[in-house]
Amino acid sequence: MPHQRIAKLLSSELGDMESAAASKGRETVFSAVIPAAEGNGPRFLLEGEGETRFLRMNSNSYLGMSLNADVMAAGEEAVRTYGAGPGAVRFISGTWAPHIELERRLADFHGRDSAMIFSSAYAAMMGILPPLITPETAVISDELNHNCIINALRLARPGEKKVYPHLDLGQLEAHLKEAAKSCRRAIIVSDGIFSMRGDHAPLAGIMELARRYDDAFAENVLVVVDDSHGVGAFGVSGRGCEEYSGCEADILLATLGKAIGVNGGYVVADRSLTDYLREKSPFYVYSNPITPGEAAAATRSLEILDSPRGLALLDHLRAMTARFEAGLSGRGFETIPGEHPIVPLMTRDTDRTLALVRHLRSRGILATAIHYPVVPRGDEEIRFQISADHTEADIDLVLDALEGALAES
To answer: Which among 36, 102, 143, 373 is most buried, taking Cβ atoms within 10 Å?
Structure first.
């Protein structure tokens, strides 16, 4: 059936986005991995780039688990045992032993009663918030929360939606006071680590406010935290913002696709909550889980993280992050200091951001330009992400390339 008219409209909209530098552009296609050697971390070949070897500074695989031989072997063994895919959703044809083992391991790792896995962390957030939100629920959200939270709230349509300035506990408290006048339930939702900046939520303060105002709501105040960038990359043992802050959220959500190095998302909470969500969350009930191979690989990754080997990886990750932050500051670049391996180089200008990223790519370094509409105008940045795969030589290579860009400008 012809569709020329709508195709013309869509092409025009895409053209407008490109003209405004608001499009994501062509995706990079990886064609091969070159293992770490001679003091350097892994390098990557790209489709269309010949034999040029690229250093990735934009990967969420903070611990290098996606290339870990033991993790890959665990996934391969499970594929041979259970097959390549789950075959159907869990309530129709049952579940697989690796899914149950992974959920048990996640619950233990976070000190919770129960865990449930989803196809992705995005699906997890979309799947848990709407079932917990009623017309008499107020949701209070940090203004820099991830897109998955924003869209989950659009889907849920709470009785009241309140947004507080980034990390502003005073305004969060004001919203709680106001919501208590008309709502029976309140849900405070926040990222743990904010993905564009690498800063973290003041979780201890959030939990203190939630407990202080809990009696004002007939159906309690719940705190939901998405710590997808925190788990495996933040805290002494990699348990994320909860470990760093010394307290627990009511519901913790995270991903298996970043520091864990595999795929999927999960939720840990009291069993009464997960039992309810297994019945009511459409993104769980009606969507296939991750494959048994992915579940087994994720379990092996967690075992490594929760061991002396994992602590050593975290120590190295922190050392490389500190080296890179110090190098940026010493060369006059603006950054947002912190302990998390997301290290933003604040450019404050789209054209400058894109020019720096092109300069780095021409020198075999992959970094991502973050600009409007992903962030507000004036908050443009290059988001660098440090990995335990990186070496001192890798970090210095990037710093030298950035210094060279300054000299040329």
So the answer is: 102
pLDDT at position 399 is 97
Task: Give the β-pairing of 185-191 and 342-346.
Answer: unpaired
Known active-site residue 195: yes
Does residue 403 contact residue 53 with C-beta atoms inside 8 Å?
no
Whether residue 143 is found in the same domain as residue 287: yes
Task: Indicate whether 232 and 87 sit together in one domain.
Answer: yes
Which one of 61, 195, 281, 301 is the catalytic residue? 195
The pLDDT of residue 377? 86
270 closest CA partner among 319, 223, 334, 205? 223
pTM above 0.90, yes or no: yes
Q: Active-site residue 229, yes or no?
A: yes
Q: Which helix (H) or strand (E) holds 221?
A: strand 221-226
What one-character DSSP code corresponds to residue 7?
H
Nearest CA to 390 among 329, 330, 313?
A: 313
Phi and psi at residue 239, to the nearest 5°:
-90, 10
Cα 319 off chain centre by: 21
pLDDT, tens digit (0-9, with 9 covering 90-100), for 7-24? 999 999 988 888 777 777
CATH number at residue 320: 3.90.1150.10
Q: Which CATH number belongs to the domain containing residue 113 in this structure?
A: 3.40.640.10
Q: How confident is the model at residue 132 (pLDDT cuts 50, 70, 90)?
A: very high
Q: How confident is the model at residue 409 (pLDDT cuts 50, 70, 90)?
A: low
Q: Are residues 50 and 90 in the same domain?
A: no
- 218-245 pLDDT, tens per residue? 999 999 999 999 999 999 999 999 999 9
Q: Are residues 45 and 86 in the same domain?
A: no
Of the listed 99, 162, 200, 258, which one is catalytic? 258
Of 229, 340, 371, 390, which residue is the catalytic one? 229
Give me the domain span that covers residue 402.
4-62+308-408
CA distance 45 to 54: 6
